[in-house]
Amino acid sequence: MNVFRLTGDLSHLAAIIILLLKIWKTRSCAGISGKSQILFAFVFTTRYLDLLTSFISLYNTSMKVIYIGCAYATVYLIYAKFKATYDGNHDTFRVEFLVVPVGGLAFLVNHDFSPLEILWTFSIYLESVAILPQLFMISKTGEAETITTHYLFFLGLYRALYLINWIWRFYFEGFFDMIAIVAGVVQTILYCDFFYLYVTKVLKGKKLSLPA
C-alpha cells in the first residue's frame, strides 16, 4: 500500500468520524443530507460484499467493517435517534435520478458481468455522485455549518488522494482501472467549487455558502 492510498483512507475515516461526532455532540443532524448518507450506505454495502467471500488483510477487512458500520450508524442517527432535528424540507434531491442511471450504467459498463462485479461497479459509480444531495441541500439553505464543511473537505480530499493513488499504481505497478479513475475524476470535479469556497471562506473564519 502506498502513502497516497493510506492517507486517502485516513482522510475518509476522518470525514466519517467528524460527521458522527458533529451529530452526537450537538444532538442534531441539522444541515446534514440524510439522502446522501443513505446513498453512502448503499455504496459501502454493495462494494464490500466480498467480505463474505474473500480475505485480503486485517487492515482491509477492518476498514470495510468500519465504513459499513459508521454509514448505518449515521443513517440511524439521522432518521431515528435525532429525527426531530432532520431538515427534510431542504433535503429534497431526487435520488432516483442518480440510482437508476447509475444502476443501468453498472450493467452496461463493467469489468465482468457477474453479480458481485456489477454491484462493485454500481458502488463506484454511485459514490461519485452520492454527495450531490448534500451539496444541493447547502445550495437550498444558502450556507453550511463549519463542522459540516470540514466533513466535506476531508471527503473530497480522500477522493483526490485516491486519484493520485491510481496514477501512482499505474506508473509503479502497471495497474490501471478505467472505471475507478473516471468515477474518481467525476467525483473530484463535483468538489472543485466547494474546495475553492472552503479555502477562500472557511479557512479565513467565514461561513460557507453556495449560490442558490
TrEMBL record:
Keywords assigned: Cytoplasmic vesicle, Endoplasmic reticulum, ER-Golgi transport, Membrane, Protein transport, Receptor, Transmembrane, Transmembrane helix, Transport
| Gene Ontology CC entries for this record | COPI-coated vesicle membrane; endoplasmic reticulum membrane; Golgi membrane
Q: Does the keyword Protein transport apply?
A: yes
Give the residue spans that cross the bilayer.
Answer: 65-82, 94-113, 119-139, 151-172, 178-199
Any idea where this protein resides? Cytoplasmic vesicle, COPI-coated vesicle membrane; Endoplasmic reticulum membrane; Golgi apparatus membrane
Q: Does the keyword Transcription apply?
A: no
Q: Which GO terms describe its biological process?
A: protein retention in ER lumen; protein transport; vesicle-mediated transport
Membrane topology according to the record: Multi-pass membrane protein
Family matches, as PROSITE patterns: ER_LUMEN_RECEPTOR_2
Any one GO molecular-function label of the UniProt entry: ER retention sequence binding
InterPro entries (alphabetical): ER_ret_rcpt
Q: Main location per UniProt?
A: membrane
Q: Which family does it belong to?
A: Belongs to the ERD2 family.
Protein's UniProt name: ER lumen protein-retaining receptor
